[in-house]
Every structure is written in structure tokens, then in C-alpha cells.
Amino acid sequence: MRIRMLQAFQGDAILVTFTDDDGNKKNIFIDSGTPKAYFQSVKPELDGLVAASENVDLWIVTHTDDDHIGGILAWFNGSEGYATHPNLVRHFWINTTGYANRVNQKQSTKVSARQGVDLEKFLLNTNIPWDKELIAPTTHEICGAEFTLLSPSQERLTAFQEHAKTKKAVSSKLSRGQRTNRPLLELMAEPYDPSKQDKSPFNGASIAFLFEAEGKKVLFLGDAWASTVADSLTALGYHSGNPLEVDCVKLAHHGSQRNVSPDLLSLLKCRQFLISTMGSGHPDKETLALIMNHAPADKDVTFTFNYDNSDLRSILTQEDLAQHAIQTRFPARGNHYIDAELE
């Protein structure tokens, strides 16, 4: 299995490649970044699939924010996208807004429910199969892989759909606040503040899931609420004494502290975390501190980034790295992606 985390500016775009039980190669895209990311990172991967006579067997759009959905809209709109290769994508997952004809069509914002409506309209005019009511916790078998949905709950999806029909159906601006430069050890000693948890109805409706194939288990958390994912894992029988052991976790919301919690981390056993962001505020160092508080004591923890710049390299100081069993990975020079290392 290969998990390729593409550079998507402040967003997500991930290509998962694996083989099914019959030895057939399968490709799953998760989100698509911004329109700019589509041309830089996503389109070259799609062109490679076309050249190899392969398909995107499933494209999962976790939610309707521009940094997740913008690229696929560019594919539908572009002359070298759907118009040229209408059979490239075999299946879509995106939860419907439910109110396509009632969203304020005059809104000019780049990050809104309208983008979900735009994608729905494209899909309604194609023959591509589309699952539009994806609720946790449920399990689906596709392409020889197992997907266990952990978000959204019915409550969170309904809340998003109710919000989408209002004239203010606009997500909050992408949050990139000031990152603390306090020592990791100091942050690890601080009590957790639950008041900082995400309250966005857009992120609350984000698809998050456990992916299982080739004997590997990976959590893809989109921008989901930590509480929703934790509730789903608890319902599936996991607890602090019986945590879900996974090979890696794609952290929610680019490593924001608003989308991670001690409750969620207590249900997981993992040593590799994928962080999709170009920096400028994300990830929060508090997120890394929470992870280290719940890390396995006998192994290093690896943080894998899809960008390499001074902002991201400055998050963990030499003192932080000396005091904790932490490894960091960054893309090779010139690459617009990084591949996760699965043992």
C-alpha cells in the first residue's frame, strides 16, 4: 500500500494505492486541495493514472471547504479533466447538502456550502455512482478494502444540512492563528481545555474513516470533530484498555488543536501521524503535545509533513527533539508529495 500525501497548500489531497485480494491495483483519492493545488499536484497524478490505463476507483470528498473540494471542481470544469476523461472516476463519496436549490446562489465566497452544491450538480449530470448519505458508524466494502465510517453522525450531518439552507451558509475562514513557541514539555504538562474544540458545522459533517487493506489500518480524519470520532470508536467497542491500533493517522484539520482531544487519543495506539499543511499556523504545537502524552512508550513517534519549509521545521526545537522520542519526515527536494512509510 502507498499513501501519497500531495502538497495542497492549506488543504488535503491524498492518493491511496493498493492491491485487492485478486492482485488488481486500486486507487482512491481523498479530497483534492484548492484549485491551485489541482494544477500543481493533483492533475499530474491523474495524468499518470490515465497514461497507465488506471482509474480513480473511489474519490472521497470529506466536506465542502475549498481546501478540500476546490481541486475536484477544477477537474470537472477543466478542458483536460472530466470532459476529456469522463470514465476516469468510477465512484464518488460526498455527503449531500440536502438543500441545493435553497443555498444563497449570490454568495461569492470561496469557502461555502455552494461548492458542495456545485459538485452535486456536476454529479447529477454524469453517470458516475455517488453515495451521498454516509453516516457513522457504518462499514462499507469497496475495491477489496474495508471502510469504517467514524464521522459524521446523523446529528452532525443534519446540523450541516440545516445550516446549508441559510443565507449564511459560509464556513469560517481558514484558521491559521499564531503558533506558540513554548517548549513541548511545558505544553504536555498543561491541563486540556475542551472549550477550544471545533464548532464548525462544515467540519462537523466531515467524513472520517478507518481504512483497511493489505493487512494495514489507517485513520483518515478529514476535518472531523474529535468528539464524533471518539463516540464512534467507543460504539465500536474501543476504550483505553482496548485501543484501536493503526499504522498511521492523517490528523484532522491540518493538525489543529481544535480537532484532537485526550478522549480520542486514549482510544488509539499509533506511532505515525500525517500532517497536511503548508504551515502558517497549522499544525498547533499543542496537538503534538497531546499526541506525545498518549504515545507508546517503547517506540518513536513520527510526524510526516507534506511540505518542507522553515515554518514547519521550527515547530519542534532541538531541545524538544532531544527530550522526546520524535522523528520528523519532510518531502524530498523538488517533490510535490511525500509517501507515508508503512512497516
Structure overview:
- By secondary structure, the protein is of the alpha/beta class.
- The chain has one domain (2-172, 179-334): Metallo-beta-lactamase, Chain A (4-Layer Sandwich).
- The chain contains 11 helices and 17 strands.
- A hairpin with a 2-residue loop joins strand 7 (139-142) and strand 8 (145-151).
- The model is unreliable at 100-111 (pLDDT under 50).
Output the keywords.
alpha/beta; 8-stranded mixed β-sheet; Metallo-beta-lactamase, Chain A; 17 strands; globular; 20% strand
Query: In terms of structural class, how would the helical and strand content be classed?
Result: alpha/beta
| Number of DSSP helical runs | 11
Task: Label the CATH architecture.
Answer: 4-Layer Sandwich
Tertiary shape:
globular
CATH topology type:
Metallo-beta-lactamase, Chain A
- CATH top level is Alpha Beta
Mean pLDDT: 91
- Strand line-up in the sheet with most strands: 7-8-9-10-12-14-15-16
Strands, total number: 17
Question: How is the secondary structure organized here?
Answer:
Blueprint: E1 2-6, E2 14-19, E3 25-30, H1 35-51, E4 58-60, H2 66-77, E5 92-93, H3 113-124, E6 130-131, E7 139-142, E8 145-151, H4 154-164, H5 184-188, H6 201-204, E9 208-213, E10 216-220, H7 226-235, E11 244-245, E12 248-250, H8 262-265, E13 268-269, E14 272-275, H9 285-293, E15 301-305, H10 310-313, H11 318-323, E16 326-329, E17 337-339
Parallel strand pairs: 3-4, 4-5, 5-6, 10-12, 11-13, 12-14, 14-15, 15-16
Antiparallel strand pairs: 1-2, 1-17, 2-3, 7-8, 8-9, 9-10
Helix pairs in contact: 1-2, 2-3
